[in-house]
Specification:
Helices cover 28% and strands 25% of the residues. With 211 residues, it is an alpha+beta fold. Strand 3, helix 3 and strand 4 form a beta-alpha-beta unit. The protein starts with 5 loop residues before the first helix and ends with a helix. The radius of gyration is 18 Å and the shape is elongated. It is built from 6 helices and 8 strands, in the order H-H-E-E-E-H-E-H-E-E-E-H-E-H.
Length: 211
């Protein structure tokens, strides 16, 4: 599971999975997409939960849910009182990104990266969303956070205000496995289990895609 997903999805998923399938033995590995895909292709991993598309023809993709991005804003900033924050609002603001190798970095750059002239980039090389949250709380800039990474209790985000992004910005999360994997039906059960224990801040697509 990718690092921008594992800390937020696993606490929701593992307890009900343990209750429902008491004899199931799960081995969970957290890593960036490139290395997870490599382990799938060399048969040292059965399934990976990543942002889709994975970009590999040799893999089956099972979409599970769509996760919107929201804007993390320093609590003392003038935009903290805005109903929503868009690209034009971030034109002269510093935007913080994850380090190279994280797929969320590429998604955030595609939405508001330097190549479209919106926002200034600071090269902090953060390797986790928690680090980005602390940088925002310190007033060093803005960042995009996936919905599951935002605590349901606002008090857990001291120094930060979360605002909707004024535009279409989301990622699709799904399971990927090899075409030759012999237990594809079990992976569809896993996808269904994930979809059944999601936060209301994301939208399940598993009910449509899984039969």
């Amino acid at each position: 599971m990718i690092p921008t997903l594992a800390p937020y999805l696993l606490p929701r998923l593992l307890p009900p999975m343990r209750d429902r399938y008491p004899e199931l033995e799960l081995i969970v590995i957290e890593d960036i997409t490139e290395r997870l895909i490599g382990r799938l292709l060399d048969h040292s991993l059965d399934v990976a939960a990543v942002a889709l598309p994975a970009g590999e023809d040799d893999l089956i993709e099972i979409p599970v849910f769509d996760e919107p991005f929201l804007v993390a804003c320093p609590a003392e900033h003038r935009l903290a009182s805005a109903d929503a924050i868009g690209l034009d609002d971030l034109q002269d603001e510093t935007i913080l990104y994850l380090a190279d190798g994280h797929c969320l970095r590429e998604q955030a750059l595609a939405i508001c990266g330097a190549d479209n002239g919106h926002g200034r980039r600071e090269d902090f090389r953060a390797t986790s969303l928690e680090t980005l949250r602390h940088l925002v709380a310190a007033g060093l800039g803005f960042t995009l956070l996936p919905a599951l990474a935002i605590p349901e209790q606002e008090g857990e985000l001291a120094g930060i205000v979360i605002r909707p992004f004024a535009g279409a910005a989301s990622r699709r999360i799904g399971l990927v496995c090899r075409h030759t994997y012999p237990r594809a039906d079990e992976l569809r059960l896993l996808a269904r289990a994930i979809a059944d224990h999601l936060s209301k801040t994301v939208s399940s697509v598993a009910a449509v895609q899984i039969r």
